Amino acid sequence: MFCAASGYANAMNASAPVTRYQLAEIGALLADPSRAAILLALIDGSARPAGELGLLAGVAPATASAHLRKLCDGGLLGVLARGRHRYYRLAGEDIAHLVETLALTHTRSARSGGALATDPALSRARTCYHHLAGRLGVALFERLRGQRGLMLGAAAVHLSERGRRLLIDSGLVGADDAIEKLPGRSCLDWTERRFHLAGALGTLLTRRLFDAGWLRRRRDTRALGITPRGHSGFTAMGLDLDPVSRR
């Protein structure tokens, strides 16, 4: 069960242009640091209860509830009911992309005005909603493209037969997986300012990387670690991990 979509989410779902009033509404929702903290806490695609989000945002329970209600009414959050418990998460990948894009805009602004402090671990590898981002995500996207493993269409990115074979040979997918039917999309990475793979295809591929033990999650952060098995696997796929691991 989700909050009814409105504002930004309605415009996106209807494939209609966002009006100036909807844009102003989005800006007002994101202008509060506590609401921004809530969105950032959920950008990994997780679902969290109000109490936990209030602690992460540093506000009292009543204040957290008010912020969550505004974000939900604005179409940025969805709520999942499980008995008496309610869990909040981003309304969709488009919302995660919006937050990442705003971070990219801030990065450009900060770079033009001076040095920018970016968490090196997040820059190396992280989750963006449910897909792989950072230098590792960009390197994987570029490796697939370099091997003609991706077909970039006007509406979506699909895996080619060459890309499917590369993933089968790596052990990430099985020969009977219909992964080539899943639509993906290119997503501009806010730390690298190059593209990584998003959408359903990017989500499944990232899940397989975890299932295969190539990646590991780190506590209380979106930053990811590459396991020894992952180092071997990515190297066998032809990825140069030296640029990924530096800094």
Task: Describe the 3D structure.
This protein has 247 residues and is of the alpha+beta class. It has 2 domains: 8-97, Winged helix-like DNA-binding domain superfamily/Winged helix DNA-binding domain (Arc Repressor Mutant, subunit A, Orthogonal Bundle), CATH 1.10.10; 118-245, no CATH class. The chain is 50% helix and 17% strand. The chain is built from 12 helices and 11 strands. The chain has helices at 8-13, 20-30, 33-41, 50-57, 61-73, 93-113, 120-124, 134-146, 161-170, 199-211, 228-236, 241-245; strands spanning 48-49, 77-82, 85-90, 126-128, 131-133, 150-152, 157-159, 184-188, 195-198, 215-217, 224-226. The strands form 5 sheets. A 3-stranded antiparallel beta sheet has the order 1-3-2. The protein is globular.
